[in-house]
Amino acid sequence: MTHTHQLPTKPCGQIHVKDKIYTILKILFTTKGLVGCGTVCYLVSLDGEEYIIKDHWVQGGEEKVLNEINMLKAMSGIPGVPELVDDWLVERSDNTVDQMQDYRHMENPSIRGTHHMHILLVMKPCARPLHAFRMLKEFMRVLRDIAIIQHMAVEHSILHCDCSLYNVMIMGEPNDSNGLLIDWEFAVYITSNDEYSIGGTGTIPFMSHMLLAQMAKLQSKAAQQEPHKSSSKTLVLPPFRVSQSFGDDLESLFYVFAYVCIKYGGPNGRECQESVPDSLLDSWLNLDLDVCKLRKVYFFTVSMEEACLEKQFHPCFAKLIPLVKEWRAILRDNMEAQVIFDSVIGLLEHHLATLQDDEERSSTNKDLREAAKELTRCMNKRTAEVGWSIAVSSPKLAKRKKHEAGVSGSDSDTLVTHATMESEGSDKIYDVD
Q: Residues 300, 328: contact at Cβ < 8 Å?
C-alpha cells in the first residue's frame, strides 16, 4: 500500500454501502500495479462521525472473501483490533455480486481460479501509519502494543500472518496513543500441525527467514517448469502448504521496527535523504526469495551484522540501539528454540520505561529548531533570488529597517524561540501538510 497525503479542503465524493451513503473526506491508501486486490482506503463521514472504508477485491470463493469479516468478528472487543461496523459484498444494479470474472470475455488457463469479488468494509477507529509517529516514546509504545495484540490473537487461536509496515497503525494523540493492527484478510485459525495453504505468508521485506526458505523452494520449482509466454515476470507458485507460527509474526515485527529506524529520519514520516550503502533494507527487498532468505539468516548468525545494523540506524533512533541488539539476540536464539511473547513484550516494556517524557520533549524541540533553521535558509535563498537585498531608499522603509535591526537575535532565533515555546507549552504536536 502507498500512503498518500491528499487532504482536500472539501469532501471529494461519496460512496454507497448497502442503503447508506458516506461522504469521502480523504483518500488514505491506494495500491499500485496491474495485479493485487486493487485496495483503496477512504476516510469517510456519516452523521458527523468518521469511519474508514476499505474498498478492495478479494481472490477466491465466498469463504475466502468473508475471511477478514469473520476474523474481525472473532476478535471483536480486543483492544488494538479494528471494529467492524458494516460490510457489503458489492452488488450491481441487477442485484448480482460484483465479480471480476464477469468482466472477462474468456478465461485463459493461466488465470483460471484467480477471479476476485468486490467487497467493502466499514471500520473504526481512524488511525495513522506507524512511520507517522510524532514522538519516540509513541513509536515504542505502538510496537509494544502490536506484540500484545499478536499474543491476544494467539490466545483466540488466530494468527495474523501479515505484520508489515503498512498494517501497523497509530490511533489517538501522541501522549495517549495506542497500536492498531489492521488487515486481517489473511489471518488463519491455528491448526494442530501449524500448516496452512499459501496466501497469508506476509510481505517480502517483513517475512521471517523460515517462511522465506519455504517460499524460495516453491519459487525454484516454478522457475524450473516449462516456460510459457506471459506479460508478467511473476512466477505462479504451485499449490502448497507452509509451516507458520506466532514466532514468524514476532520476527516480522522486528523487521518493521528496523525498517523504520533505517528508512526514516525522524517523526511525521520524514524519510532519510542520504542513501545508505549496502543497506540491509535493499537486501530484504530482494525478489529472489532464496537470496533474501540467505541475507536474513546471515543477519542473525554473523556477529559483524550487529555493527552494520547499528551504523545504518538514523541518529534520531540512537536511544533504541540497545533494544535492537537485544531483540536481535532473542530472534537469533529463536532459530533453535521458539521465541515466546513474554520475552519480546518484556523487552519492549523495559526499553519503553527508559524513555522519559522530558527527553521526548527535548527531541521534539530539536526537530522544531532544525525545521526553523531550514525555513530561514529557504527564505533567505528566496530573498536573494528575487533581488530583495537591494537597499531601500524610502525614508519610511528605512525607518522600519532600523527598527527591525534593533530586535535581538536573528530571524532564525525568533523562529526557533517561537517554535520551542509552542512545544513546551503544550503536550500536543500539530503538523501541517
A: yes
